[in-house]
Amino acid sequence: MKKLSMVALLALGITSEAMAEVTTQMGGQAVFYYQTNNGGDNNFFEQGTSSGNAGLQLDIKSDIGHDFGLGYQGTFLGTLDLDKNIILDERQYAQANKANGYATTKLYITKKVANSYLKFGRQALPKSLSPLAFSEGWNVFKNTFDAAVLVNKDFQDTTLVGAYVGSSNKHDNLSGFDKLTSNSTALGNGKGTLNAGAYMLTVANESMKNVPITASYYALKDIAGADSGEALWLDVKSKKMLVNFAGQVGQIDPSNNLDKTVAFGAKVSGKVNQTALSLAYSNVNDGDVQLRNVGTAIKTPLYTQIIGNQNFISLDNDTVLLKAVTKLPVGKLSVAYDYTQDNSVAKNDYQELDVVYKFDALGTKMLLAYIGQKTKNNTFGGENNSNNLRFWTRYAF
């Protein structure tokens, strides 16, 4: 992100009197994203099996004096006319069902007071401090939230985060800020709304330097199908050890006699030469609420989450994940294998193999990925296989 010149400030209408207090930085990224699959009778690279986007994001941050700041992010998404003969669908829209459009994905004001920091407006939320309402980075651009967030560091080795989260955009339409979702299976479609948003309190403690602990509490307001609900999430992990361990446990407890959803996970990881190895396990019971991000109703905070398994690990299952990441002369290669045992009546066991290569080339960051998915129905028999190829390139400026 680069500082704007005085000429640029004048062009923005900032007077010389204000220039003494205003410092503005500008940056962003340009992205091309493409995915294709060969599930069923389809073949790779056919228009009917392919989706993609070209996109541009512009970020502007300003220090406007007296410890106030402003932030803005504008997002343009288009197709470069690839929808005419190369792709069938866009990965994301910046305006509903428009192949080319523009959206304001961030717009916020900040204020620093002593050891406290307030951020109010449209913004990204990190999973590390908001595990059940977080910005996901798997698609062309991240989703964002309309929220008020207060961060305090008055206590030694402790970060307190309080937030009200009112709405979010979804990955199909970055301009469509709407109510959060309760992910309630009791409603039949698994996407009941949180009509009054969510209140969150997170405590992150590093008193034990190599064993940070993060605990979060959510008050979920006016759930469709229930009056309200509460959610708890705890994450403990070790770091900088020969073998590292991590554990997570949480629950979502809706009212109106709906069954609570309880989840826990564990992970062990280590490094052999240039290769990082990990083994993770998670279990989610058969509650009435899926364990998903309430901002998007897509990904989960579980250690076993990989590219495409969220529909199978979010409720009533046991999942094991093996992963290896190794450095290559250029870039990194990761291989992940997931096996999920479906404990529901449907008995749809699931397997996924991801092979991902990330590297730098031509001044950009690039990704090539293979995602192989297999579902087996243990009640009626039969298998469903799908193979996906994903490519993106990102240029940051």
Describe what is shown at a glance.
The chain has about 400 residues and is mostly beta strands. Helix content is about 5%, strand content about 55%.
Question: How would you explain this protein's 3D organization?
Answer:
Helix content is 4%, strand content 56%. It has 397 residues and is mainly beta. It has three domains: 26-110, no CATH class; 114-263, Porin, CATH 2.40.160.10; 304-397. The chain has an 18-stranded antiparallel beta barrel. A hairpin with a 6-residue loop joins β13 and β14. The chain starts with a strand and ends with a strand. The model is unreliable at 5-19 (pLDDT under 50).
What are the defining features of this structure?
397 residues; 18-stranded antiparallel barrel; 3 helices; 22 strands; globular
Rg calculated over all Cα atoms: 22 Å
End-to-end Cα distance, whole Å, is 6 Å
Number of H- or I-type helical stretches? 3
Structural class: mainly beta
In percent terms, what proportion of residues is strand?
over 45%
Q: Spell the H/E element sequence.
A: EHHEEEEEEEEEEEEEEEEHEEEEE
CATH class of the largest domain: Mainly Beta
